[in-house]
């Protein structure tokens, strides 16, 4: 009987391809190929995988993707690429016109976050390079090209008006400046050093996990009602559910060091994709497995992530206030929620992580 690792490879090394990233498609190059098995997978998924480099982007964006993410580079698929890009831009402009509540804006914004796409076979569908729709990549080419085109048209005099300049101001991507306490900065450095230098890992499953932490924070906010956050009784749940949803979809793609990937693959198999996992019964999202260490990594990456969402300025400001308050709560609870000593790994694990 054929196994996932027996499937033929569709693409070859150095082949020019098109690659889905969230809802859009980008040109890429296949750097290497592999047929992942249950024991060799680094993404949590089995079968043919391709390590791709996105044209025009840093090597930090290089990743393993399944065949379902790739398309042959031909006229038909290039036309599809352009069509999806045009549709995305038109929907982004249309979304700015309607009136929404803070809750609706936040929910829509979280859905547009890098890593929050999923569901389609052609998209990422899960996490870990084979699993989350990173709009950070999906929007970058389209925005750059469209911005250049817009600038050119204004130089030609087509939109050199005060109204055009006002439209440009409104269309600017809002910034999100976080106030990260010094103690959490130290913890991030210690976390990095433990994993990348000392070959250590966070104990999994963590207790409390991300889901529990965010629920506790929501209850804390609703009870204390700090002056720094707006309408906690109405918005706290939306904020924490959005953060949890994004965490589940972004963990494998954005939040792990390379040394952690074999552990992640094993966890995915044990709690999400393995043959003994019962859908809806024993299946667990990663926010029920990982804890404060990886949640903190996600929170500090939000300013970069936000620039690739549909969140408006007011919603970004609201989210910033909640995250800054979450930082303060994490400092207050640090002795309880952060692991003091990471686990040492054996030589066999270290060899697998480097392979």
TrEMBL record:
UniProt main location, coarse: nucleus
Composition-biased stretches (Basic and acidic residues): 153-173
Domain MSL3 chromodomain-like: 11-85
UniProt entry keywords in alphabetical sequence: Chromatin regulator, Nucleus, Transcription, Transcription regulation
Localization: Nucleus
UniProt GO BP: chromatin organization; regulation of DNA-templated transcription
Domain MRG residue range list: 162-343
InterPro entries associated with the record: Chromo-like_dom_sf (IPR016197), MRG (IPR008676), MRG_C_sf (IPR038217), MRG_dom (IPR026541), MSL3_chromo-like (IPR053820)
Stretches for region Disordered: 84-112, 128-173
GO cellular component: NuA4 histone acetyltransferase complex; Rpd3S complex
Family: Belongs to the MRG family.
Protein name according to UniProt: Chromatin modification-related protein EAF3
């Amino acid at each position: 009987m054929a196994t996932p690792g027996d499937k033929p490879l569709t693409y070859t090394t150095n082949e020019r391809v098109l690659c889905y990233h969230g809802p859009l498609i980008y040109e890429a190059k296949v750097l290497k190929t592999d047929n992942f098995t249950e024991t060799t997978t680094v993404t949590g998924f089995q079968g043919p995988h391709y390590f791709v480099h996105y044209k025009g982007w840093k090597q930090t964006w290089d990743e393993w993707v399944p065949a379902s993410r790739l398309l042959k580079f031909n006229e038909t698929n290039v036309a599809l690429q352009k069509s999806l890009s045009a549709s995305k831009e038109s929907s982004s402009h249309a979304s700015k016109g309607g009136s929404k509540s803070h809750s609706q804006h936040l929910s829509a914004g979280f859905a547009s976050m890098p890593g929050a796409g999923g569901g389609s076979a052609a998209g990422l569908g899960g996490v870990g390079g084979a699993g989350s729709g990173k709009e950070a990549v999906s929007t970058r080419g389209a925005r750059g090209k469209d911005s250049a085109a817009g600038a050119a048209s204004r130089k030609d005099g087509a939109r050199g008006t005060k109204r055009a300049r006002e439209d440009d101001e409104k269309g600017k991507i809002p910034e999100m400046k976080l106030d990260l306490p010094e103690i959490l900065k130290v913890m991030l450095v210690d976390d990095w050093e433990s994993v990348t230098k000392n070959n250590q890992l966070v104990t999994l499953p963590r207790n409390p996990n991300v889901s529990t932490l965010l629920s506790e924070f929501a209850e804390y906010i609703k009870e204390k009602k700090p002056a720094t956050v707006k309408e906690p009784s109405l918005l706290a749940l939306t904020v924490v559910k959005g953060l949890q949803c994004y965490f589940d979809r972004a963990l494998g793609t954005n939040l792990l060091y390379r040394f952690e990937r074999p552990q992640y693959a094993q966890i995915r198999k044990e709690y999400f994709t393995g043959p003994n996992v019962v859908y809806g019964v024993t299946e667990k999202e990663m926010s029920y497995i990982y804890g404060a260490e990886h949640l903190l990594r996600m929170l500090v990456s939000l300013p970069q992530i936000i620039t690739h969402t549909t969140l408006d300025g007011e919603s970004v400001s609201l989210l910033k206030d909640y995250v800054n308050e979450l930082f303060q709560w994490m400092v207050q609870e640090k002795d309880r929620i952060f692991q003091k000593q990471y686990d040492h790994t054996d030589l066999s694990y270290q060899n697998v992580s480097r392979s």
